Amino acid sequence: MLLLGTCLLYCARVTVPICAVALSSRFDWDKKQFGVVLSSFFWGYCLTQIIGGHISDQIGGEKVLLLSASAWGLLTVLTPLLTHITSAHLVFMTSSRFLMGLLQGVYFPSLASLLSQRVRESERAFTYSTVGTGSQFGTLLIGGAGSLLLEWYGWESVFYFSGLLTLLWVYCTCKYLLSEKELTIPMNYLTRGLSIPKQTKVPWKQLFRKAPIWAVIIAQLSTASTFFTLLSWLPTFFKETFPESKGWVFNVVPWLVAIPTSLFSGFLSDHLISQGYRTITIRKFMQVIGSGVSSIFALCLGQTSSFCKAIVFASASVGLQTFNHSGISVNVQDLAPSCAGLLFGVANTGGALLGVICVYLAGYLIETTGSWICVFNLVAAVNSIGLCTFLLFGEAQRVDTHSVCFNRIKDAETKYIMGLDETHGRKECWSSFFLLRAVAGGLQSHPAQRFQ
C-alpha cells in the first residue's frame, strides 16, 4: 500500500506538468509565468518537511501519510471546479500548487521515519527502492492515462482522475488495513508531536558538526532539485522539440524504464552489502550511477535532434536516477535512525528550496535563450556538486548513538543525585545509573560495536 500511496502522490504532483501546454494555451501564460506556477509547489513543499518528519517520529508515519493524502486528494479534485469560478487564474493556480506542496511535503519524511523504525538495515535499500518505484508508477500512470484523458476530455479530467484515486486509496487503507486504534491520534500525542520533550530532544548542534550529515544533506538537495526540474519540464521539452510526437510515448517510456532499474538498484545494494562489502562503499557506488552517469545522459538529451534518441537518453537519465534510492536516500537512515524522519525533512527542505530556484531558472533560461541545452547543463552541474560532496565526506556509521546514550546517562545521573526518580527506589536508580555508565564505557572503548 505504501507503493500505491507513493504512486498516487506523484499522480497528483505531475498533473500540472502533464497539462502544461493545455493550461498555458487556455490561460495565455508564457514560460516565465508557467515557471512561477511550477516552482510554487516547492515553496510549500519545503515548509512542512521538518515538522512532518518530527511528528511522524512521535506519533507514527502511517497516520501522517493518511491525513496528508486525504487533503491533497480533495484539493486535486476541487482545483478544476474552483478555476472556473475565478478570473485570477495565475494567482489561483499558483496558490493551489503552493498548498499542494504543503500537503505533500510531509510524505517522504514520514516514510523515512516509518521505514527506519520497522525495517532492518540489511533490507532498507530494497524496501525503499520498491516503495520509491511508486514515483515512477505514478508518473507512468498519469503520463499514459492522463495524456489520453487530456486528449479526449480536456485538462480538467486529469485532475479528477488523480484526486478521486487518492481518496479511494485513503478509504481502502483506513477500512481494510488499519485498525481503529492505529488510526486514533490522542490529543496528548499531538501535543507531544508538536513539542520536543527535554529527554528526547535531538542533539542538533552535535549532529550538524558531523561532515557526513552535511554530505548527505547537500547530496539530497542536489538530486531532489534536479529530479524536480526534469519532472517539471520534460513534458514541455518533448512537446515543443518534437511537436508531432505522441504525449503518451514521452510521458510513459522513461518512467516505465525507471521501475525495473529502481528495483534492481535496491536488490543489488542489499546483495552486495550481504556479501561483506562496506555499506558506505555501496552507497557511494549507487550514487555515482544515480547522479553521475544519469547526468551524462541528460547532457546527451540536450544535444540530439532525433526523437528516438531523445527517448533513449531521457529513459536512461530518469531510470539511472533511481539508484539514488539505494544511495543517499537510505544513508539518512544509516546515519541517524533515531531521528531519520526529522533529518530527512531537513535534507528534503533544502532540496525543495533549490528545486524552486532550479525549476524557475530553467523556465527563465528557456525563455531568454530559446535553447533547452542550458537546462540540461544546469541539471548536470547541480548533480555534480552533490555527488562530489558525498564522495568526499559521506559515511554510513551512526552518528546519533553516542549522543542519545549520553543524554540518557545524564538524565539518570540527575535523577539519582536529586532524588527525583518517581518510579524506582534509590537502589534501582543506582543500578540503572551504573549500568548506563558501563554501556557508555563499552561504546567509547569499542567504537566498532557501537555502529553494528
Write a structural description.
This protein is mainly alpha-helical and 452 residues long. The protein is built from 24 helices and no strands. The chain is globular and about 55 Å long.
Instruction: Report the end-to-end length measured between terminal Cα atoms.
Output: 30 Å
Helix content: over 70%
The value of Rg in angstroms is 23 Å
Q: Which residues sit in consecutive blocks of at least 5 with pLDDT less than 50? A: 193-200, 403-452
Shape: globular
Tally the beta strands: 0
Structure classification: mainly alpha
- The averaged pLDDT comes out at 78
How is the biggest beta sheet arranged? none
Order of secondary-structure elements: HHHHHHHHHHHHHHHHHHHHHHHH
How much strand? Answer: under 5%
Please count the helical segments.
Answer: 24
